């Protein structure tokens, strides 16, 4: 656990050439306190990606760094922890957009998975074309596919099974990509 009472950003898990870089809004209070991505017990991220077939087993938030070995990384568009994404300011999104673009250019993941439509819309400055991969013409960084999935926050009313169905497209794409590289 981190220092009590003091909310801090959590470290990114980044490496060059990842298969998927998961991009969240910002850390929750629980994530800030533990130092781990998607640490709130009501957050369905770990259940969702396992159910979709992205991981061989259900990982826990404290195992986030181990996900690098599977080809997955984590970052947020805004580093400041909040209770809800509504607390994020326009200025924070603008600064986060620039920082995220720099990370994508530097690390060049095969896909950036935006965990929430709002994250993608804040990053791209446009509406999504729905769940899943966005049209290639919308790529901010050439060669980095953009995937939009539902937010895994417990505040989202979407059923877990529906979320899993969306992320299953990302899992199928990844399996195909791995097959092409073999």
From TrEMBL:
Molecular function terms, GO-annotated: pyrimidine-specific mismatch base pair DNA N-glycosylase activity; uracil DNA N-glycosylase activity
Gene Ontology BP terms: base-excision repair, AP site formation
Keywords: DNA damage, DNA repair, Hydrolase
Residue ranges of coiled coil: none
Domain Uracil-DNA glycosylase-like: 11-161
Signal sequence segment: none
Keyword DNA repair found: yes
Superkingdom in the source lineage: Bacteria
Name by which UniProt lists this protein: Mismatch-specific DNA-glycosylase
Taxonomic source organism: Paenibacillus antri
């Amino acid at each position: 656990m981190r220092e009590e009472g003091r909310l801090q950003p959590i470290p990114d898990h980044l490496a060059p050439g990842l298969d998927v870089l998961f991009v969240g809004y910002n850390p929750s209070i629980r994530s800030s306190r533990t130092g781990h991505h998607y640490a709130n017990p009501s957050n369905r991220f770990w259940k969702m990606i396992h159910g979709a077939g992205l991981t061989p087993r259900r990982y826990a938030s404290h195992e986030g760094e181990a996900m690098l070995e599977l080809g997955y990384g984590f970052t947020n568009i805004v580093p400041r922890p909040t209770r809800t994404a509504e607390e994020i300011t326009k200025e924070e999104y603008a600064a986060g957009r620039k920082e995220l673009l720099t990370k994508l250019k530097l690390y060049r993941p095969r896909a950036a998975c935006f965990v929430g439509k709002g994250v993608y819309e804040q990053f791209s400055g446009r509406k999504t074309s729905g769940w899943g991969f966005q049209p290639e013409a919308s790529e901010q960084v050439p060669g980095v596919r953009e995937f939009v999935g539902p937010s895994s926050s417990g505040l989202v009313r979407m059923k877990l099974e529906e979320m899993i169905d969306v992320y299953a497209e990302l899992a199928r794409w990844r399996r195909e990509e791995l097959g092409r590289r073999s």
